[in-house]
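$ run holo --ligand "iron/sulfur cluster" --emit tokens
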Amino acid sequence: MSKSFATRAFPRRQPGPRFQVYTLADLEKGTIPHLQAFSEERLLLMRAVAHVLPFRVNRYVVEELIDWERVPDDPLFQLTFPQPGMLAPEDLDVMTSLLRRDAPAAEIKAAVAAIRTRLNPHPAGQLHLNRPRAADGTPIDGLQHKYRETVLFFPSQGQTCHSYCTFCFRWAQFIGDKSLRMASREAAVMHDYLRRHPKVTDLLLTGGDPLVMKTRHLADYLEPLLGPDFEHVRTIRIGTKSLSFWPYRYLDEDADELLRLLEKLVAGGKHVALMAHYNHWRELETPAARRAIARVRSTGAVIRAQGPLIAHVNDDPETWARLWQTQVQLGIVPYYMFVERDTGARRYFEVPLVRCWQIYREAVQRVSGLGRTARGPSMSATPGKVEVQGVAEIGGEKVFVLRFLQGRNPDWVQRPFFARFDAEATWLDQLKPAFGDDKFFFEDELAAMLQADRRGGSS
Ligand SMILES: *Cc1c(COP(=O)(O)O)cnc(C)c1O
Ligand code: SF4
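-- output --
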């Protein structure tokens, strides 16, 4: 890479272990040494789940993040290994009996397909909505433009991750079903779109995990943004779990090239943010994780942290308080706490909205103001990002106080609105307007927007 700009000395590289993953095949063959103490029955249940929902975990996660003394309750084990509760009991029964009698592959495949169709991979209508169009009106794959200022781009080489999270709603992208994949091969298409949309200030590269890509591919997308056509793109964000799942991405071969790229974008005047996905403070504790964070920060890029609240992983205030505190200590900015959206394994991972709010509130109370920059709990729903601000009693009615943090219409943002209290509700679509109203204030406008979108209105 060129040395025409000033390069600071990065904290020293630290070559690590080889990147190696375990998948369903390893569960089937029994080649994961850490599972040796598990009963046959437990292993069968894990295999049953892993046939339906993708399983992939790398050796760093297995050897350095999971606390095997505390398995199966260990949060990092829950985060990455298939759990029996992830399938409905009847589906789990179907799968275990097929595996128990060594059913033919075709029969297993058919059962898996039937279960998967009942799981809903794109709950917020992501696939059909918000898909921008090219100048000639054809939809552009791999781009999403829902909020005026920010364009999401899903590079096609970034549609996988260093390990898979058990709760992840993007599983449909990982199982190779082309019709469900949101991806693009074309940096040129992205550049063309950004050139034509001068109101866009933020580009957010997401996946999967864009940092599974080699730096030279990443550079094809990002370096051109330093050119005069893209002065309006002030912020480049990269959504990633690699700081947690594979910190050697920042320490190993190709790491210096990556850091130089980040540094070059910063030197070129961009705000560069790694939108780091964290679920638990233990992800921040290993020497490799800490060194990776220090190296990223030395480039001038900012690490902002976000992650969902997940049952069995982080559904308690102590965990969040310690997570935010540790992030602040390491120079990471807490950004969002998400409510887990409606996914295949929702029953197992979901947390009622009222509980999410209590956890958020109790966690916030335990940290100083610097740890309170995470907004939430926030639902990324069809109309926008909706935050549960709390529970109140207004005119004798117990209500949820809600607000948009992001709206399909920017005018909705920061307008408080109210829903009838519901102790069990886990998502916006289960909430009813308070005070006897028959609709939320945004519903008619949203319906009109969705209809225009379906008719192929231009972006
Ligand atoms: C969250 C999100 C963004 C970014 O929103 P910010 O509030 O600016 O972080 C952009 N697009 C989509 C679809 C999102 O869900
Ligand atoms: S890292 Fe992100 S995209 Fe990848 S499996 Fe986890 S939640 Fe899903």
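-- notes --
The radius of gyration is 22 Å.
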